[in-house]
Predict the structure.
Amino acid sequence: MILHDTMILMTWILQRHKHIYQRRWHVIFALIVIALPLIFFAFFAHLAHIETAVIYADIGSSLLRLFIAYIIATILGWTLAVMFYRGRGSNIALPAFDVLQSVPTFAALPIAVLTFGKSNGLIIFFLVLAIIWPVFFSVLSSLKMIKGEYHEAVQIYGLRGWKKLKLFVIPASIPGLITGSIVGLGDAWEALVTTEIIVGIGTGFGAFFQQFSNDSKMTIIGIIGLLMIIFTINKMIWLPLLEKSHSLAE
Amino acid sequence: MNAITFNHIHKTFKDYRGKKLEALHDVTCSIKQGEFFILLGPSGCGKSTLLRIASGLEKDFAGECVYDKEINQSAFGFVFQSFAILPWLSVYDNVALPLVAQKMNENKIHTLVMEELESLGLTKFAHHLPKELSGGMKQRVGIARALVIKPKVIFLDEPFSALDSFTATELRIELLKIWQERKMTIVMVTHNIEEAIELGDRIAVMSARPGKIDTIIDNTFSRPRNSRSQTFFEMEDKITELIVKG
């Protein structure tokens, strides 16, 4: 009887506040997407007989390295693209950057070890190298694709300096920045795990995969967990940003 | 009094093989203050190039482009063929752009922008994005942006060619009204003979290869101009003949 009444009440509420419940479901879905990798890794910790806190700390260290590298690479890549997308300098700079981005990143490992030692700096350095070029070339392409008439409108109305950057260059570069970030971070995940293993820093995903290098079952479960984290970040951050940025550039 | 005078303007471009192409050859003419001046001609006759030179967008040319002392070159209005309104800015922000560039204070910007939005019937759309507007509305935003700085000269580069004929007719009437009320100089490029006769005080008929002004026609036909009248057809025939002869 109580169940029956509750069902009727729920149906009435759902019909009356359909829009709110649709939004609530969105929130619940978002929470599930965020919580799933965390629950998965807690389960993994249980299977692997290690402390959950250790696993979370590893995830945290890797994400922090990735975040710092992403900020550095984005600032550098974006600035370079803005500096060289037009003008005489671009004729020399663009081929030079094209050659630089083709250099195999890990060829720089011996020099990087000498410069940074086996440290967080070294890992971040390689992550920056992985992210910077996709960001640079995507932003560059976005800026080069700006219609000539937009440039002329900005020129004739005398938009310059910071105002030009804020109202014209930054918004025009956003679609490229988002696309470049997605591609760059895709490369960076690989570079992250590889560098953490090579450096043997003892924390992060690399350390975690190294620990289970002889256990293929745990390695596969670990990879699934990593993919879940990547999926969550893409679903919650990059895909909505991508959609938004392209709709604004129409 | 002349607003703009072209003295022996020459302009060459290089094609992708590096071969020089003469876009404008020895163009000399004057645009009077307050007149509606039309640059008319087929594709490739250099009419848009001449407009760009006059507006200061094109600086690399030979010859001289002289402005009247009272004309502030940094305050030209320009209306583009494909509207050129920035897709990430709202209608309000697009119209405010020239004023923001002039570092005007926000209250004054607000007053001027709202005034212009109202005169172009855009008040309701102030906070819309360009993608939510029709082509005609987008061009209204382009015109409002050109007018908001109260320019002495406004340049229009085939402003109605991307619009359907109904919207184009409606906007032509509004443009004429604005011009008559505000008494500014208008320089407009078009390849539409009917549009040129309907709007222009004087029509510079241009021909291509190399681009030059063949003749300037005084359009004394009284306003409002009836495009179905005998005089209108005669003028249309005369211009067509001039263009065909090249």
Summary: The mean pLDDT of chain B is 92. The two ends of chain B are 30 Å apart (CA to CA). DSSP finds seven helices and nine strands in chain B. Strands of chain B lie at 2-14, 20-32, 36-40, 62-67, 77-79, 153-157, 185-190, 202-207, 212-218.
